[in-house]
Amino acid sequence: TIRTCPVFARADVCGQGVPAGHAHAPASPDALGRHALVAGSSLGWFCFALALNEGVPAVGYELLNPLHERATDALAKIQKFVAQEGAAMPSVQLRHGDVLGADLRDAHLVVLTSQCWDPPLRAAMYHK
C-alpha cells in the first residue's frame, strides 16, 4: 500500500489534489512542484522511502558517480516492480551533481544526508 503525505498531496500523485493554501505553479518547466530534495542521496534509499512510504515526490543529488549509477539502476528496478504490481509512485529524480547548484524554490523539505558536510558546506547550503 502506498500512503500519501497530505502536506505534499498532488493530483498527479494521489488523486486528492493540492491542500487548500498550497496551490502553486512549479518554479521552472522541468520542476516537480512541491517535493523533497535530498542532498547526498547516495544509493537513493531516502528518496525511495519518501516516495514509497510517504507519497512524497523527491529529487536526490549525489556527487559520487558510482553511487549515482547504482541508485539509478535501483530506481529503474523499483519503478518496474511498482508498475508490474499495478501501483503508482510519486516522481523520483536522481541527479548526478552538486546540490549547491540546485533550484530550491519548490523544495519544501531539504534533507542533508551526508556525514561529510563540514561547517562551511552546511552554511552554504543553509544560506542557499
Topology (elements, then pairings):
Elements: H1 11-14, E1 35-39, H2 45-54, E2 58-62, H3 65-84, E3 92-96, E4 107-112, H4 119-127
Parallel strand pairs: 1-2, 1-4, 2-3
Give the gist of this structure.
With 128 residues, this protein is of the alpha/beta class. The protein contains four helices and four strands; from the N terminus they run αβαβαββα. The protein has a four-stranded parallel sheet, with helices on one face.
Can you characterise this structure?
34% of the residues lie in helices and 16% in strands. The protein has helices at 11-14, 45-54, 65-84, 119-127; strands spanning 35-39, 58-62, 92-96, 107-112. With 128 residues, it is of the alpha/beta class.
What gap, in angstroms, lies between the N and C termini?
36 Å
Instruction: Please state the average pLDDT score.
Output: 78
E-strand count: 4
Report the helical percentage.
Answer: 25-40%
Strand order of the largest sheet: 3-2-1-4
Give a quick account of the main beta sheet: strands, pairing sense, barrel closure: 4 strands, parallel
Structural classification: alpha/beta
The gyration radius over C-alpha positions equals 15 Å
Q: Please tell me what the overall shape is.
A: globular
Question: Number of helical segments?
Answer: 4
Instruction: Return the string of H and E elements.
Output: HEHEHEEH
Name the poorly predicted regions.
1-31
How is the quaternary structure best described? single chain
Beta-strand percentage range:
15-25%
